[in-house]
């Protein structure tokens, strides 16, 4: 059962009309942009960017910088795009670029500037488009303006290397084992789930009220097994081990929203530390030999090819290869077990249906229970982070009862994968994933 919740954002339809069958640098770049295939686009850009037209080169540069976690470089390229190529882009892509610019400014801690940017864009659209078009931009602008009142995610820890001890604990009688780190939120001690697959820090409404978090105006859509509504709240203080943070945003989410039947299953999912906090550090290592997570700052940027990428909902995915095919898998310590999704099933249908054992499995998450038609593979082998990995009894989802983010895509690597490794290093600066 996977207890996550994916954040729904405005996404974009990329360049159309480029002949996919032509093997020029422009046509390949257009193909990869349309498919959101950032790893192949990265390889192409590193080898053939000089052969691309100025527009495609700039578009590729902007998208690669955004999804490989370089918000400052991404916004520089987006400004160049908007300054010279708006006619080629069209309204849809211009709107998307404004959304991404605001998001990048927020990543850099410049929420006031992000709000101002979107306000100016909204003003330019007034009287030209329906209010339904500007409503999402207005909601986002208001959210940035609310965040701008705080020094968000202010890190007061002076030292560069910060180990945080974790425990592996079974959740109730569910059979699930998750990673927990002990900490304090507004002075109250509690256990936090350490979840690399969470696009937000998460807290339940009950704990948000009990611990005195300050609710911000507006709501935000989240996606688990169904689309739900949550709110952002501010924790004045957060302590994890020796790490001390001030003004930390949490997504306030009712874990039983949409289905009271899962209340018992989701009871332990009260506090989750996700990607917004993890990306505050340049690098962190999950050391299973010593049961600690070591957070590091001051990591230098290197000219390396990244094998980690951010999704539109700020989840991290790692580049995996199997039988000459590359595909992304979500790295998800918040899932007890690994699983392959519907895209994997489509790519390897012959193998899966030949060797897999068909079954119906239920799963729960924020929003309710889903039932999936799966093929349980005896084993699946792939290369990742410089290592060859084999996962035993791996389920592959063929059909899900709900169109949801948890079973879609190529799949996710859960805690059972991480526990095979002595140590895993995640570098947020160079966007690299290594297994030691």
What this model shows, in words?
- By secondary structure, this protein is of the alpha+beta class.
- The protein is 31% helix and 33% strand.
- The protein is built from 13 helices and 23 strands.
- A 6-stranded mixed β-barrel has the order 4-5-11-6-10-9.
- Strand 3 (161-170) and strand 4 (177-185) form a beta hairpin.
- The radius of gyration is 21 Å and the shape is globular.
Question: How much helicity do the residues have?
Answer: 25-40%
Query: How is the biggest beta sheet arranged?
Result: 6 strands, mixed, barrel
Oligomeric grouping of the chains: single chain
Percent range for β-strand residues: 25-35%
- Count of runs of 4 or more consecutive helical residues: 13
Distance between the termini: 28 Å
Shape label:
globular
Identify low-pLDDT runs.
1-14, 16-22
